[in-house]
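Sequence in, structure out.
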Amino acid sequence: MSPRPRTATDPERADPARRRPLAVVGAVVTGLGVLALTVAIAVAGTWRGSVAPQEIALVTVDVPAAATELVCPGPVRLPTEPESGSDAAYDPAFDPTPVASSSGLGLVTVSPDGSSTAAATRLDPLGPNGVEPLIAVVPDGAAAGGSLPDVPGGLVLRAEPAGQVPAWVAGATTALTTDGDLRGLVAASCSRASTESWLVGAGTSLGSSARLVLDNPGRTAATVSVDLWGPSGPVELAGAPQYLVPAGEERVVLLEGVAAEQERVVVHVVASGGLVGAYLQDSALRGLVPAGTDDVVPGAAPALRQVVPGLSVTGSTVDGADVALLRLLAPGTQAGTATISLLGPEGSVELPGATEVDLEAGAVLDVPLGGLPAGHYTLVVDADVEVVAGALLTRGLGVGLPPDAVGDPQDGPPLDRAWAPSVALGAAGPLALPPGVDGEVVIGAVPVPGVTGVAQATLELVGPDGVLGVTSLRIAPGTTSVQPLAELTGAASDAVGLVLRSADPRLAWAVVLTDERQDGDLVAVLSPVAPAPGQPSIAVRAR
């Protein structure tokens, strides 16, 4: 076939000259575009350099206070018990529980300013909203509370704002087991669900169990990442280090199943997609001898200073058996040094042989507190690198004695343990008391640069229908005040909580609970959870 011939009806082929004007026009248009862009850039540069930007005023916008939501730990569980959501399982055939655990919960709601009506509060089981509350407290005054004689599982404490500030509410659970593998007194305050938690305590060596409990009180699923450090540094978990926690549900991870043979651990929990409550149930055995059970609750985030109130020790020798200890971790990449101070009722007390300790980056360190006089202390750690901290309290007939006087621990008397977390200074607010507890309120006045004079505070005792009594406190700087609960409550056996009111930024406090037993006393620590700060308004820039 021959090519198509050119004809007069084919403009481009018939007259090539007709194409040139179009090409010229295109070139002119392109050149004008470049020129216009150049002029625009030049003008913009001239304007920016010669005209000062106008000041835009800030506008104050009122923001309603948020509702308060606290997650309360459930009852203690043997790690041999099968449970939904667990990532490891033990043989349930061996279940030495000669006695049952008794549990309880107390809650308190108080007025932030002490004069207005306290916020209405409800206690719900962990799960979807809208169910019938287990407890509903509707105050008609500045304070009220309630109690629950048996804790069925994970719980959520909810309260609407008290006017323009978040509600001042608190809850706490206890569990008492007098014999068997879980022998001990367990106590924990209800804590705020968050995106990040630091848990300082527990271990996964032979005979120990660290049961990580993740509670999601929200309406969306949350993905939780778990980082763990041991004596030799960061520990790689077996399997995926991320766990999905469905909305309104609980997820349990037995750390001895994913990070075995770690004598001491620190756990960092990070949640995305929702807020999660986290705690560790720490329990230990020495052969068949119980060595204590307690819940490890979140402490303060890494900082150059950590304060642990409520350190209660019995008399001990420097090398005594099973003495209290301080646990430290510098989670960063830099090594450092930490200075340890102990504030007692009469002032600072030197820790024999360990006033200053070296910190290896990423390695969990336990500092024995043997040799201290028996009593109550506020523990202060100052470091040149950021650290996290917690303290272990111990009780038992052989605690503090020289090792040769105790003999084989597997043939000795049982022990109990309690973990005290680090807290923020100046944490005034409420603390709930579960029913039937006894112990001491321990309040430390930690020295702070620029703040002088005696620290002043009031301690209110709260019953179901209001304030039962008020105690005025004056605490010298660098000392710790001890107030026995029996003296505060007197004949008021129905007390449900305490409120510390003070504007002093030096105060840190906790309640040390005790239960005296012939085979060895039991101990636990309750630390307050500071109320959320109020933010009635914010400044925004209008454009």
